[in-house]
Write a structure and sequence with these properties.
The structure is a single chain. This protein is an all-alpha fold. The chain has one domain. It is built from 12 helices and no strands. The radius of gyration is 19 Å and the shape is globular. The protein starts with a helix and ends with a helix.
Length: 253
Amino acid sequence: MSSHYLGFIWYRSLAQLRSESARTYLGYLWWILEPLLYLMVFYIVFALVLNRGDENYVQELLVGLVVWKWFDSSVRASMDVIHQNAALIDKVYIPKIVFPSVSVLSNGIKFGLVLALLLLYSILFGSGASMHWLALPLLLFMQFLLVYSVSCLVAAITPFLPDIKMIFDKLMTLLFFLSGIFYTAESIPESIRGYFLLNPAFLLIENYRDVLIHHQWPSISAAAYICLLSSIVLTIAIIILRRFDRIYPRLIY
């Protein structure tokens, strides 16, 4: 992708964020309040009402929810992203991979703000900071690759089968409960734990917890698996997007 389109992705992402903030009275403050309310709901239900977990459960829950949020928001936004930009596609040629890229970047900026709050919480009320936090850039790269690959794939497929968005939506809900947000790998029976470890989102959340809570280095094997699987998915998505790049305009009208 040329630098021209990279600049367009950055500009479009900022424009999308400004548009979102202009639609609410709270403006940019809503970027922080919305995820905080999101976290508070699950904290009240699982930590206070159901009284789940040990002394680290609140921090484990917050890490799982924050990490999941970028993935969930970006993938759901990418399901219909090509159709939503039909007017722009009709006027000028733009590689279709640009549109899921905008969704991932705009949601990534909001994720960065929430992650900063999570790190502050960990320092003040959680297990504190450690040298293992130096692994955060690796985790962020793994997370970006996973988010970007799945977002591009759903963006590439949905124009051909618009009704598949409902299937993707249900799959995201199922994946939400299978990604270890409310529980850890140790709480899963060994007989089925291996199946959960095939889920890259589950492994990603576990690695974030290892670094931020347990002060351990991330698993190299898990990192390699996430990056390899994400690279394969991204390659397939790019092939589809390039192969049908000129066909998408006829599909969305």
